[in-house]
C-alpha cells in the first residue's frame, strides 16, 4: 500500500512538473500563458493517470487467477487515491469539468479514453453532500448527465479549457 501511495504522489509531481518544464524551455509572455495552462490541466493529467492505473490493475487481475475481496479493496483504494491526487492538483476544476462534459456526451460519441475516465469516476449520481473528491466527481458526472454541456460550462467556468483541448491533453499523456 505504501508503494502505491508513493507512486501516485510521484505521478502527481510529474504531472505538475510539466508546467515547470514548459516555463524553463519557452520565453516571454508565452511561457506564462503556457505554464498557467499546463498547471490548470494538471488535475486532468492526474485523472488520466488514475484511469490508466485502475484499468491496468483490473486487466492484470483477469489473467486466469481469481480476484478476491482484497483485490477489489485494493482497486477501490487506488481509485480513491487517484481521485484525491487529481483533485489536489486541480484548483481550476478542469478535471471536474472534463468529467461533466464527457458525461454530457451521448454514449456512442465517447471514445476509449473517455470511457476509461468515466469508469474511474463511476456511475453518475447525486451525492447527499459533497465532502470528498470522489463525491465531487460523482456530482460533476451527475450534472453532465442531467444538465448537459451548458450546465458544465456554467458550473466550471474557472476552467478555460474546452472538451477537445482537455481530451487532446489526455491523449498526449497516454501516447
Report what the structure shows.
With 175 residues, this protein is an all-alpha fold. It has one domain. Helix content is 75%, strand content 0%. The two termini are 27 Å apart. The chain crosses the membrane at residues 35-58. Keywords: Membrane, Signal, Transmembrane, Transmembrane helix. Residues 1-19 form the signal peptide.
Straight-line distance between termini: 27 Å
What is the molecular shape? globular
Count the domains: 1
Strand content: under 5%
Estimate the helix proportion, in percent. Answer: over 70%
Mean pLDDT: 74
Largest sheet descriptor: none
Structural class: mainly alpha
CA-atom Rg in angstroms: 16 Å
Question: Low-confidence spans: pLDDT under 50, at least 5 residues?
Answer: 1-36, 53-65
Number of strands: 0
So how many helices? 8
User: Could you give the order of the helices and strands?
Assistant: HHHHHHHH
Oligomeric nature of the chains: single chain
Keywords: Membrane, Signal, Transmembrane, Transmembrane helix
Transmembrane segments: 35-58
Signal peptide: 1-19
Comma- or semicolon-separated keywords:
175 residues, disordered N terminus, single chain, mainly alpha
Amino acid at each position: 500500500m505504501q508503494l502505491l501511495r508513493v507512486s501516485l504522489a510521484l505521478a502527481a509531481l510529474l504531472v505538475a512538473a510539466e508546467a515547470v518544464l514548459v516555463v524553463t524551455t519557452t520565453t516571454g509572455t508565452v511561457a506564462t500563458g503556457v505554464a498557467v495552462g499546463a498547471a490548470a490541466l494538471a488535475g486532468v493529467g492526474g485523472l488520466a493517470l488514475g484511469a490508466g492505473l485502475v484499468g491496468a490493475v483490473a486487466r492484470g487481475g483477469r489473467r486466469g487467477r481469481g480476484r478476491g475481496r482484497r483485490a477489489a479493496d485494493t482497486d477501490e483504494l487506488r481509485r480513491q487515491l487517484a481521485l484525491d491526487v487529481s483533485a489536489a492538483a486541480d484548483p481550476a476544476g478542469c478535471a471536474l469539468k472534463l468529467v461533466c462534459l464527457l458525461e454530457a456526451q451521448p454514449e456512442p460519441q465517447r471514445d476509449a479514453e473517455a470511457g476509461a475516465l468515466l469508469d474511474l469516476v463511476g456511475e453518475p449520481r447525486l451525492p447527499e453532500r459533497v465532502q470528498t473528491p470522489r463525491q465531487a466527481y460523482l456530482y460533476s458526472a451527475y450534472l453532465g448527465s442531467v444538465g448537459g454541456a451548458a450546465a458544465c460550462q456554467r458550473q466550471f467556468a474557472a476552467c478555460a479549457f474546452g472538451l477537445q483541448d482537455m481530451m487532446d491533453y489526455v491523449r498526449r499523456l497516454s501516447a
